[in-house]
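Async update (no meeting this week)

Hi team, since we skipped the sync, here's where things stand on the single-chain job. The sequence we agreed to prioritize is pasted below, unchanged from the tracker. I ran it this morning and attached the output directly underneath so nobody has to dig for it. Comments welcome in thread, and please keep replies under the output.
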Amino acid sequence: MGNSVLNMNREIKEITKEIIEHTSSYNKAERTSIISKNLRFKSHPYYTEYQTLKSLCLQILRMEEFKYGESDNEICGILFDGAWLWEEYVNTILTDHGFVHLQNKIGKGKIFLFEDIDEFGNKHKSGIRYPDFYKDDFVLDAKYKRLGSYDKVSKVDREDIHQIIKYMNNLNASRGGFVSPIESKQEKNPTSHLNNSSSTLSIYGIEISMISKSYQEFCAKMVGLESEFVAKLNL
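Output:
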């Protein structure tokens, strides 16, 4: 079953190959020793916030069961919702600049596409949607995709483009954009004008530090890179 999942399509095959290439130092024989060393609880405040992550990593290494539901099916892998994590990370930046973050997982902040009137003249709203972020006349959609190499907005997936234009129209916004992670500095933000309109659609990248030697250095660099991202938005 595990092999069939890993060979399901080309994308999964490529991701699996990349993981193997980046973990060439992995040695199965050392796993027991690593687990043993990390079972010890570290009370120093520096490690406190990492205890949950540490426990999860230990469960993975020990192949312990942690899942939803009561199914007896064997677990052959773990999936992390990278798109959701990216969206929540972007929220930590945009929330300080007045953006509303709509959360469809808990039904918070929904908007409606339609307003219908029944035979009694009563208005009823329908067509619930959840844009990722918006403020004033600006709508942003967090995308955990490789958009950094695109030189034109038209290269973005058509469904993603249709979706954000729909949100812009509903919220009467003149600016829209996709926010994605990038590996190197973005010389300019690809921007296109919507046909027969003054509205624009752009790609905004957040550069991720790739050469940090410590977690503290990474955090310090990301503060600067996040500031550069906010400056691109011209708020």
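Quick observations from my side:
Residues 2-61 form one domain.
The first helix runs from residue 2 to 6.
Reply here if anything looks off.
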